[in-house]
Write a structure and sequence with these properties.
heterodimer, A: mainly alpha, two-stranded antiparallel ribbon, about 75% helix, B: mainly alpha
Chain lengths: ~270, ~200
Amino acid sequence: MSDRTIAAEGNGFTPPGPSDFEPPPFFTVAGLEVNKPIVVVLLASVLVALFFYAASRRIAAGNGMVPGKLQYAGESAYGFVRNSIGLETIGKEGLRFVPFLATLFFFIAVNNLFGIIPPFQLPGTSKIAIPLGLAVIVWAIYNYLGIKRAGFFGYFKAMMFPPGIPWPVYILLAPIELLSNFLVRPITLCLRLTLNMFAGHLVLVLFVLGGEYLLLEHGGIVGILAGSVAIFGSVVMTFFEAFIQLLQAYVFTLLAALYIGGALVDEH
Amino acid sequence: MASFTSTAVLDKIAVLATEAGEEPNPLVPHLSELVVGLVAFTLLFLFLRAKVWPVFEKAFAERTAAIEGGLAEAKREREEASALLAQYKEQLAEARNEAGRIRTEAQAQRAQIVEEARAEARVEASRITEAATAQIASERQQVVAELRREVGGLAVQLAGRIVGESLEDEARQRRTVERFLENLDGQSAVTDPATAR
């Protein structure tokens, strides 16, 4: 952010924009430019893996009947996804998908939370590539399950021509359902998460940079008052962002579970 | 490797676009980030699925089994306890009945024993009385017999004295007779009541 402040000097206040999400790469390995989002994604994965691995060691050692603090935290977190997303949305068959859903939830949640964790303060999921990859995986899973269950044509038939509806409605329903399953669902899944993180980060940066500019550059009683309000607002927004970040991880995982569950049952 | 090269190319394009003064489009994915994201997520998934999630499931299953086992055990023990309680109550009631029965029996026995003792005492008393009566009767007969013998002796004695002594002293004679009579009287006094009976 310091380079932005420097840029802001002299030629007035420059509001933050999409270029804030393209920090220069730290270094390049084999043609791969390692920038901040990539570090965040890798670090988030390692942290999730380490946390749950550490939390599960006592059980693996055979004395996990009475959990310690760490084990309890890990178990509760996993149990939350398992019970209130996996089992409640998909049903008994959902247990099969809980490993995927739990990984999905914690991967997204920690990547989101990096938006408020110093010194990173950039959600890995604010880069569209990350949610896009996840959405494609979810899309592939639920379509694969649907085709596997009903056969290729049976799947499309059940999707586009659900029984018990007067035939003229199919003219409208069939293309909508097709579009919904193959385009709208993965795109909305991807964009909802990306843009929530993108916008949230922009708002935070705006509050901080704007406050900084008002306090240091604009000056005067108006600058100090408005700048203080903005800085205070950035703190409030940080808490709000934390909530949004967890909520969006939950929404993404819940929708993935809904799509998977929908592909598993006969009725559309 | 090929993907990484194309990644670099795409990223260069993005950087060039930025350098040209345009803001980068946040909706255009960077291939490098896409690849890293997919690889990171896949590795994380494989690791957690192999090492962590089954362990948690195991803990849940073990805990459920332990709780269910505990509940079953508790139910079994409770049933056992209530069965024991019923058994004890039954035994207690039985014991009470038994005690009542024994008490009634004892009372009956006591009455019987008292009655028997009383009857025995009565028999004994009458036996003793009879024995005493018989003894008294036999003693009286002995006394009477002895008396008769003595009276005869005395009569002989007296007659001897009267005959032997000279009749010079009428007074003495009379005295002797009187003494004899007195003696006789004294003996009659002992024998008479028995004879009267």
